[in-house]
Amino acid sequence: MRNPFRSETAAFHFLLLTVAAFAVVAVASRAGGTVAAIVAWAVVSAVAVALYARGRASREPETVGHVGPPDERRIVVVAPLNASPLHRIANDVDAEQAQAKMRAAAVVGSLGAPHVRVSSAVGEDPVTAVDDALHTFGGDEILVLPGDDSLVERLRERYTVPVTQLDGD
What crossing angle do the helices spanning 8-32 and 34-57 adopt, rounded to 10°? Predict the structure, then answer.
């Protein structure tokens, strides 16, 4: 499972804010009873949602440092699963993952060249798979196989490396 926080500092800030929110609700409950506690909870929740939304909107794309020798180029190939969101929730997606891995392996095999290393990223959540690949393998470019039209934009918003959508398998 991927950590939802960008850093340990962010996780610690979340913990402090959670404790403070509980303290506000407890003090309101003690001072004004149940109604005051509910109002305090609603206000604290609204503030938390506003802070969360503001933080997501202002997120800068992440810069991924080059890994490996300076003359080496690293490419991450992303193969999204060919399954609807409902299918992913209601069914086992092992067959779809196996197909995506085969599609990615075919592209990875065709891109081999001197001074080029290629890795694949396959998973139920392709953004998390890319994140893991970039932080373990590195990457100078991301190639996205067909299957999820919104994935290219989500990756471009998240990373500064070039993201290219391939037209066919």
Answer: 160
